[in-house]
């Protein structure tokens, strides 16, 4: 059984960097970045999703070289795309996603081999597809993890339909507050009421991250980084590394430290070309450990409540997202 099966709509990403005359083009999406990070670390990962007839196959090469196994489904029509525009200091000003042919892809098109994985990881894709994959993943005995990119539906009944099928949610605090009328603790309460067993990896931008288990909360600080276009994919690298080491039985504090180290290594370069290997990761985690003291408290403790109420979501996590 492989470690992870990833799915989502792979996009041809167009990055317009400040004062660069030519647009950078590569294959992307949240699931692609996560798959690349784990393949570099030696995990057995498969990516499955739809591709249009216009996809340049050369875009797959750097990911295949990293170790990602592809099971792609060619469909008539244009490939999904993502456009990002950056300011001089590397902040994202706009982020526009076009699902392209991906809107027509269905969970029943995933091969039987896709479900032979310990973890079924769902990236950016339409709501109905997400629910269908999550539901089927559960029936096959997979852990179901969702890493969204701002595509949560606005209707609470649709959120309920999705959250009921998840084991883990990777999310950021800015997004979580939208479910609690601007209050993080209320947003968390909404999800806990829908699915008391749901566990959440909650990134906090420059503030660090929390892992919220069934009855406990772990908090890790961030390593200060300069805003840069190299940060694209760092959150996906963080989440993927956390869960990879979690399923290997590492303590949560160790998983958080290694996830942070992986994100630091990722931002050595743009895209996924300089993501860290497992040996690099272990060395970096050991080096950074003194700066990454993990705090631990009960879910309903006064400490956790104080943390949640005091949180001021780091809005640098969000761009302006438009789905077409």
Short description:
The chain is α/β, with parallel strands linked by helices and 324 residues long. The chain contains ten helices and 15 strands.
What does this 3D model show about the protein?
The protein is α/β, with parallel strands linked by helices. It has one domain (2-323): 3-Layer(aba) Sandwich (UDP-N-acetylmuramoyl-L-alanine:D-glutamate ligase), CATH 3.40.1190. The chain has helices at residues 30-40, 61-66, 127-139, 156-163, 173-176, 184-194, 234-247, 252-266, 278-288, 302-310, and strands at residues 2-7, 11-16, 24-28, 45-52, 69-75, 81-86, 92-98, 117-122, 143-146, 168-172, 199-203, 209-212, 216-220, 295-298, 321-323. It has a 10-stranded mixed β-sheet. It has a 5-stranded mixed β-sheet with strand order 3-2-6-7-15.
What attributes does this structure have?
single chain; alpha/beta; UDP-N-acetylmuramoyl-L-alanine:D-glutamate ligase; five-stranded mixed sheet; 10 helices; disordered C terminus
CATH architecture: 3-Layer(aba) Sandwich
Helix content: 25-40%
Secondary-structure-based class equals alpha/beta
> Shape from CA axes?
globular
Write the topology of this structure.
Blueprint: E1 2-7, E2 11-16, E3 24-28, H1 30-40, E4 45-52, H2 61-66, E5 69-75, E6 81-86, E7 92-98, E8 117-122, H3 127-139, E9 143-146, H4 156-163, E10 168-172, H5 173-176, H6 184-194, E11 199-203, E12 209-212, E13 216-220, H7 234-247, H8 252-266, H9 278-288, E14 295-298, H10 302-310, E15 321-323
Parallel strand pairs: 1-4, 1-8, 2-6, 4-5, 7-15, 8-9, 9-10, 10-11
Antiparallel strand pairs: 2-3, 6-7, 11-12, 12-13, 13-14
